[in-house]
């Protein structure tokens, strides 16, 4: 078993590693996952899973007072081999990938009227990505979307969130055996938006799931990616990039539940923060159950603080219930610009302003390249440049 890995001197590392002990992951939840809102008490902010979240900024999503009154314009562009349906709550495909893990997700599950089901046919290899644009037009909205990828099919999905909305939603990704799915979820909301969403992925036998979560906009964004395996040999890669500005709260809470043998997961999230009261939260939970022999997993979170007044909470957790694994580890680091890097660049005639820009671009470059779509990558680089204009 690999030991938890600490980042070099000067970094902030917080986390835990447990072997066959009381469930680290279970203690992070006040209730068992459930579709019933009544199974989750109204949070008061002292619970483990809510202690970092400013509840007053959720606009009533957590206590049931937020009634659906808004509008969210949705546009779907799908190539041949993809079926898009609008279904009722009783459709058996809804809820297969996992249950809500908190009151907001349960509220979203019980508040949507119609769900969207997007299906990629068995063995289809899409030549173009599926693009889903969600543009908020004010008010409160709830939603549920299921993306099913048939056995041995391959697809790329881009979810683009813009506009103003108070939004709570659940998104499901169901991968058949041998399927491959890459998801890019971009949160580029207006400054007044609130977005809470649980992303459940069920990865089939020998299937490969890659998620790239990019968060820029919104007053408060709280996302919860969850991964489970439906059979041995599955792979999950979870990447994230966030740029937290003055006054913003951005929270990413991940859980990878290794419950099948010979599966792999890799998590890498990076964030940059600037401005007073900018607050980023990253929680990375990985559970390796007793039946998950042959697991190989690693999780990483790194944060770059650009100005005074910003705050980061980074908590990796790794629980292992079997010693028969390939490897497991985690790392977390938070720090400012490396003075040696700046000195090196400035000594070669580069201005301090440009040197800082280059360091930040280099910090994010590896994750941006994971997207694999030039138009999306160029847009995100341009967004990072625009954010940096405010700080350098």
TrEMBL record:
Q: Which residues form the SUF system FeS cluster assembly SufBD core domain?
A: 136-363
Organism's domain of life?
Bacteria
Q: Which GO terms describe its biological process?
A: iron-sulfur cluster assembly
- Protein family: Belongs to the iron-sulfur cluster assembly SufBD family.
Q: What is this protein called?
A: SUF system FeS cluster assembly SufBD core domain-containing protein
Protein's organism: Streptomyces oceani
């Amino acid at each position: 078993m690999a030991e938890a890995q600490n980042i070099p001197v000067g970094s902030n590392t917080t986390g835990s590693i447990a072997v066959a002990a009381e469930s680290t992951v279970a203690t992070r939840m006040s209730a068992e996952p459930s579709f019933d809102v009544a199974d989750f008490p109204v949070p008061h902010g002292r619970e483990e899973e809510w202690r970092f979240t400013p509840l007053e900024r959720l606009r009533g999503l957590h206590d049931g007072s937020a009634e659906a009154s808004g509008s969210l314009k949705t546009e779907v562009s799908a190539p041949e081999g993809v079926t898009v349906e609008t279904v009722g709550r009783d459709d058996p495909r809804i809820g297969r990938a996992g249950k809500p893990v908190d009151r907001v997700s349960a509220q979203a599950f019980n508040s949507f009227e119609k769900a969207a089901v997007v299906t990629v046919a068995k063995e289809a290899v899409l030549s173009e990505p599926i693009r889903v644009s969600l543009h908020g037009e004010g008010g409160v909205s709830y939603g549920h979307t299921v993306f099913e990828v048939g056995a041995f099919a391959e697809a790329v999905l881009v979810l683009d969130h813009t506009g103003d909305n108070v939004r709570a939603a659940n998104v499901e990704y169901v991968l058949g055996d041998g399927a491959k799915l890459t998801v890019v979820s971009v949160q580029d909301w207006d400054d007044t938006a609130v977005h809470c969403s649980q992303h459940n992925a069920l990865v089939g036998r020998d299937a490969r799931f890659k998620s790239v979560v990019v968060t820029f906009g919104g007053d408060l964004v709280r996302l919860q990616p969850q991964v489970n395996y439906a059979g041995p040999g599955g792979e999950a890669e979870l990447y994230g990039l966030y740029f937290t500005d003055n006054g913003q709260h951005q929270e990413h809470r991940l859980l990878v539940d290794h419950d099948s043998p010979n599966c792999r997961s890799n998590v890498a999230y990076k964030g940059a923060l600037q401005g007073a009261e900018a607050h980023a939260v990253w929680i990375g939970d990985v559970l390796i159950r007793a039946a998950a022999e042959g697991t190989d997993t690693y999780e990483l979170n790194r944060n770059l603080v650009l100005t005074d007044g910003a705050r980061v909470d980074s908590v990796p957790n790794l629980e292992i219930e079997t010693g028969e694994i390939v490897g497991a580890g985690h790392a977390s680091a938070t720090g400012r610009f490396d003075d040696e890097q700046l000195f090196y660049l400035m000594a070669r005639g580069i201005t301090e302003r440009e040197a800082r820009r280059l360091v930040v671009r280099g910090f994010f470059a590896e994750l941006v390249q994971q997207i694999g779509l030039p138009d999306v990558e160029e847009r995100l680089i341009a967004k990072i440049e625009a954010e940096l204009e405010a700080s350098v």
